[in-house]
User: Which sequence fits this backbone?
């Protein structure tokens, strides 16, 4: 395409959507230091390719992690991760958003390690107003230790959607009309970490971390953030309604995305708090709406 036509097409896209930026079509290779900083055990983070790729290392002394420099109220956040290979039992690799208050909001990806040959478990959870206990667990349809895969969160006033390689694996709709709190007024930072959780992570803590296999290494790249940056005291996004992730087409999944979500639920879901009557004799209100999806 000629440069002039390419520029014209971008102008038309902006005029049609009314957004400040177009939705990303592929992971963006952003250097780690542009948006993130280490949080602890700095010597357990290794940098490659000019800082566009990092590794987190876990040994018997400590794990490590990092966090975003800014806080964000709504947006689209993604990262490519290659998980700990081999015997990863007892380890947890996490990618999540969390606010700073006691009654905090949180949106979690947690990858629970396992013995060699056993599949990783991806656990997601959502806290609103300090209340969590909304775990869902799936097996992945690929080996997440063999290469990088994209893990993303779309968060706006209408829904929170978890994506794996652009396939929705979970949706949490705004159900405030049913008395369910929804994250809307607490900016969150983005965090990631690699740590030892062998008291619960693998088979409820029955499988312990084999430190002879240390160091355990998780790799990250494509540190994409497209959100409304705000102070932790902010209650409103200054560009609310103007960003691509705020537009009508992102207020719900489309028909194809719903079909992919059902595929994940039917073939790969191994736990859903909505159907756990032993822990929750009374179904949460948002689960009743979720059954209609």
Assistant:
């Amino acid at each position: 395409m000629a440069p002039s036509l390419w520029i014209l097409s971008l102008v038309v896209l902006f005029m049609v959507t009314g957004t400040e930026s177009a939705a990303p079509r592929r992971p963006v290779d952003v250097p780690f230091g542009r948006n993130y900083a280490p949080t602890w055990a700095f010597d357990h983070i290794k940098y490659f390719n000019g800082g566009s790729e990092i590794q987190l290392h876990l040994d018997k002394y400590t794990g490590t992690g990092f966090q975003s420099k800014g806080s964000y109220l709504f947006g689209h956040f993604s990262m490519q991760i290659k998980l700990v290979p081999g015997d990863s039992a007892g380890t947890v690799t996490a990618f999540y958003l969390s606010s700073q208050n006691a009654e905090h909001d949180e949106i979690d990806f947690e990858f629970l390690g396992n013995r060699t040959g056993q599949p990783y478990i991806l656990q997601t959870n959502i806290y609103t107003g300090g209340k969590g206990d909304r775990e869902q667990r799936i097996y992945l349809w690929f080996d997440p230790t063999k290469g990088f895969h994209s893990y993303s969160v779309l968060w706006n006033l209408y829904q929170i959607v978890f994506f794996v390689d652009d396939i929705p694996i979970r949706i949490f709709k705004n159900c405030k009309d049913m008395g369910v709190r929804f994250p809307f007024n607490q900016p969150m930072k983005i965090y990631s970490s690699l740590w030892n959780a062998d008291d619960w992570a693998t088979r409820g803590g029955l499988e312990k971390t084999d430190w002879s296999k240390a160091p355990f290494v998780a790799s990250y790249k494509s540190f994409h953030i497209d959100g409304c940056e705000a102070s932790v005291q902010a209650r409103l996004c200054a560009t609310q309604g103007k960003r691509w992730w705020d537009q009508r087409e992102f207020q719900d999944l489309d028909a194809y995305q719903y079909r992919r979500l059902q595929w994940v639920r039917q073939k790969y879901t191994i736990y859903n708090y909505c159907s756990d009557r032993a822990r929750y004799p009374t179904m949460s209100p948002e689960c009743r709406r979720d059954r209609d999806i």
User: Anything to note?
Assistant: The helical segments are 3-17, 32-35, 255-267, 285-290. The chain has four helices and 15 strands. The CA atoms of residues 66 and 293 lie 35 Å apart. The chain has one domain: 29-290.
